[in-house]
TrEMBL record, chain A:
Record organism: Thermanaerothrix daxensis
Major localisation: membrane
Descriptive protein name: ABC transporter domain-containing protein
Homology family: Belongs to the ABC transporter superfamily.
Membrane-traversing stretches: none
Keyword Nucleotide-binding found: yes
TrEMBL record, chain B:
GO cellular component term, pick one: plasma membrane
Database matches in InterPro entries: ABC/ECF_trnsptr_transmembrane (IPR003339), ECF_transporter_component (IPR051611)
Superkingdom as given in the UniProt entry: Bacteria
Organism: Thermanaerothrix daxensis
Bilayer topology term: Multi-pass membrane protein
ATP-binding among keywords: no
UniProt protein name: Cobalt ABC transporter permease
Alphabetically ordered keywords of this record: Cell membrane, Membrane, Transmembrane, Transmembrane helix
Lineage: Bacteria, Bacillati, Chloroflexota, Anaerolineae, Anaerolineales
TrEMBL record, chain C:
Organism annotation: Thermanaerothrix daxensis
Transmembrane segments: 6-36, 74-94, 106-126, 146-166
Keywords of the record: Membrane, Transmembrane, Transmembrane helix
Annotated protein name in UniProt: MASE1 domain-containing protein
Keyword Transmembrane helix annotated: yes
Length: 291, 286, 185
């Protein structure tokens, strides 16, 4: 299986900074994969997202080393505007992504840029508004809707362009828990119904873990850890050391492991945790009489 | 209610049946009318018609109140400019003397002529702003086939203005939270206030320029190169059709303008000599 | 020349629209002439930093800020050349005489001051003489008030803002891809 994104010995240093934001990155991401990227602030996550869409080096001053290939082609080799047809990016601040006066204008902007015909635009608009539940908001100015709705608009605007690869840079960092859940529901549908490659940079691990096929930990501009989601989180000690706090259920089981009360895999979700806890408690429960 | 650039207009307003281009055309052409009309009563009639159109369009007429100070200040400036600062002209008729300064009939008349020209021009602008949404202007510009980049810059500028206003509120609250209050303070203090607002406002806007650019590039927008030459469909325009009544309105505006020019320069109408208002005022003052 | 410059153009029009309207409403002399016009900072600093894009924005935004402040459409249109020159001259002087936007030397300050002086003088002469007189809004005798009003309003606001903005933000701006060294890129 060939990688849709190939990153080799990639380093990027912004102009007038002392250290590279990314330093000797090697990564392969495969078609249809759902990849979660985590890391503390300043680890280089956003720089990586911008590099995948060609915004780096296109829109920033700095020094690049190594290669970032998307679909077998170096990002700089794509003609202007071409790479963005393949890679869509959703940024963390939805407010900063809107340049139009209504939600509808915002959604069709990218489609017009692609040179689609009116019927094609209409069709995609219907599809994406249904997927993201935005139909009722179409005539509204994007800055007058709630934070969660804004981020869904930003997501929909990119989705409508049907890129092969979607990169979401902390898409829920400014949202309340309910809005966060709704964004991940959309991503879940996307994973089930489309065969997109999705890369999500996120701090909200509870929502990310159930969807991610693979996780990558970035730290100080380098890949500190990567692997299939379940294997990845078994390295919880390293994650904690790097300032990553996995879901509390997972941390709870890690403490049980430390106390040698549990020796299985760490559960990834709350449901798994409940199930395993039942197994842990069951023998004791049967003998527990209370006071 | 729908938000317009200057207030709110009910969703049931008949103005929404009018194509945005017609509104822009009205602004551009009707704003010219007063320049060809000297007789104040005709310009006053135009003012009444525009206010009437605002009422028909169900614009909250209270919006006009914002412009009353503007109208008063302009009126005062014109009057002072023409009378007190109008110089000495022995050939003119003196109406009265103000602290030894002669106030001439011709100067009062000219001030009124100018003032009644300005009022409908302001009203046309207010009518346009209070009945148009930002999108209407974009649609009007696209209807006349202005290049996409022009209409898009305009849309972004409107969006940026909204963001600057929001930023301004944030910066102001932040300054106030740190005890920076201008209430009852002298002018120098207020000027200092502006400086303290301007630097963060500029800094925030610079940051936004980076974010905006990333958003545009990420959506495949290119200003130069192959991607910029893509033939763009204009989806937004599919929501707006130029209906028979829009043709009628456009024709009425055009014909009214032509008729005005013919009447003014062909038959010398709308001049001061025909003005009953000026004759009446003359009989009262002189 | 790239997308960022289109964005800068739009943002400057947006900032100028708000800041200019604020000045027009707060300190009016009439017909968009103000005795302290904050918009001048966007016009002149924008031109120095962003070259042609700043000049373009400086010529366009007063049209909108005046409109919202109640200046008739065609009067605002008549001001466009004055506003364009006000934005252009300091930008041109900085490029022609290789002045540093960070105002590193006395020479840089002098170039800024002199270019502001000439630019604002042109604006002050153009608008009251050509536009306001042309529209018959003023008498010849009252022109000096408006000429001095326009000049003073722009000059004072320019002195207050331009120096501080350039000194405080130029070091940041020149590091961004938005900074325009020549005219368009």
């Amino acid at each position: 299986m060939s990688a849709i994104i190939e990153i080799r010995d990639y380093s990027w240093q912004y102009l007038n900074t002392e250290n590279p934001a990314l330093n000797g990155i090697n990564l392969d991401i495969y078609e249809g994969e759902f990849v979660g990227i985590i890391g503390p602030n300043g680890a280089g996550k956003t720089t990586l997202a911008l590099s995948l869409d060609g915004l780096i080096p296109g829109q920033y001053h700095g020094v690049k080393q190594g290669t970032v290939k998307v679909m077998g082609k170096e990002v700089e080799a794509y003609p202007r505007g071409e790479l963005q047809r393949q890679v869509g990016v959703v940024f963390s601040d939805p407010e900063a992504q809107f340049t139009a006066m209504t939600v509808e204008d915002e959604l069709v902007f990218g489609l017009e840029n692609l040179g689609l015909s009116i019927p094609e635009i209409r069709e995609r608009l219907e599809w994406v508004t249904e997927l993201t539940a935005l139909k009722s908001l179409l005539p509204k100015p994007p800055y007058e809707i709630s934070g969660g709705q804004k981020q869904r608009v930003a997501l929909a605007a990119v989705l409508a362009m049907m890129p092969k690869i979607m990169v979401l840079d902390e898409p829920t960092s400014m949202l309340d828990p309910v809005s966060r859940k709704r964004i991940f529901e959309v991503l879940g549908r996307l994973k089930r119904e489309q065969n997109n490659t999705v890369i999500v940079i996120e701090h909200s691990l509870e929502n990310l873990i159930p969807l991610a096929d693979r996780m990558i930990l970035l730290s100080e501009g380098q890949v500190a850890l990567q692997g299939p989601t379940r294997t990845f989180f078994q390295q919880i000690a390293l994650l904690l050391e790097k300032g990553i706090y996995p879901p509390e259920a997972m941390q709870f089981f890690y403490r049980l492991v430390q106390r040698q009360w549990y020796n299985g895999d760490l559960p990834l979700t709350l449901d798994e945790a409940a199930e395993r806890l039942e197994h842990v408690l069951m023998p004791r429960h049967s003998t527990y009489q209370g006071s | 209610m729908n938000k317009t650039m200057l207030g709110y207009v009910p969703k049931e307003s008949p103005i929404y049946a009018v194509h945005p281009f017609v509104k822009l055309y009205f602004l551009l052409i009707v704003s010219l009318f007063p320049m060809f009309v000297a007789a104040p009563e005709w310009n006053f009639l135009l003012l009444v018609i525009i206010l009437g159109l605002m009422v028909i369009s169900r614009v909250d007429i209270r919006i006009v109140r914002i412009y009353i100070p503007v109208a008063i200040s302009m009126g005062s400036i014109i009057l002072i400019s023409y009378t007190i600062l109008g110089g000495r002209h022995p050939e003119f008729q003196v109406v009265f003397n103000l602290f030894g300064l002669p106030i001439y009939w011709e100067r009062i008349r000219d001030a009124l002529v100018v003032y009644f020209r300005i009022l409908p021009m302001i009203a046309t602008m207010v009518f346009f702003l209070s009945t148009s949404r930002e999108r209407d202007i974009i649609v009007a510009m696209r209807t006349i086939r202005l290049p996409f980049v022009v209409t898009y810059v305009f849309a972004m500028a409107l969006r940026a203005a909204g963001m600057v206003l929001e930023d301004f509120q944030i910066v102001r609250q932040a300054e106030q939270a740190r005890g920076f209050d201008t209430t009852g303070k002298p002018l120098t203090y207020k000027i200092r206030k502006y400086i303290m607002y301007m630097i963060p406002l500029f800094a925030l806007s610079l940051r936004r320029s980076e974010e905006f650019t990333n958003a545009l590039v990420a959506r495949g927008y290119a200003f130069t190169g192959e991607a910029s030459r893509v033939k763009r469909a204009d989806y937004i325009l599919t929501h707006y059709t130029f209906k028979p009544h829009d043709f009628v309105f456009t024709a009425i505006i055009t014909l009214a303008f032509i008729a005005l020019l013919v009447a003014r320069y062909g038959f010398n109408y709308f001049g001061l000599d025909d003005s009953w208002f000026i004759r009446w005022l003359y009989s009262v003052l002189v | 020349m790239g997308v960022i410059h289109i964005v800068i153009l739009a943002l400057l029009i947006g900032i100028g629209f708000v800041v200019g309207a604020f000045g027009s409403i707060s300190f009016p002399l009439g017909f968009g002439v103000n005795f302290f016009w904050t918009g001048i900072a966007v016009q002149q600093v924008g031109g120095i930093w962003f070259g042609g894009w700043g000049v373009l924005a400086g010529a366009i935004f007063p049209f909108f800020s005046n409109a919202i402040a109640g200046t008739p459409f065609y009067v605002s249109l008549g001001y466009v050349p004055a506003n364009a020159v006000q934005a252009f001259l300091p930008a041109w002087a900085f490029r022609r005489f290789k002045a540093d936007p960070r105002l590193k030397s006395g020479r840089d300050y002098l170039i800024l001051f002199l270019s502001m002086l000439v630019a604002n003088a042109f604006g002050a002469l153009w608008s009251p003489l050509v536009v306001l007189r042309g529209f018959g809004l003023l008498t010849t005798e009252s022109l000096p008030l408006f000429v001095w009003g326009w000049f003073g309003g722009n000059m004072i606001a320019g002195i207050v803002f331009n120096f501080i903005l350039l000194k405080a933000l130029s070091p940041v701006v020149i590091r961004t891809p938005a900074f325009v060294k020549r005219w368009w890129a």
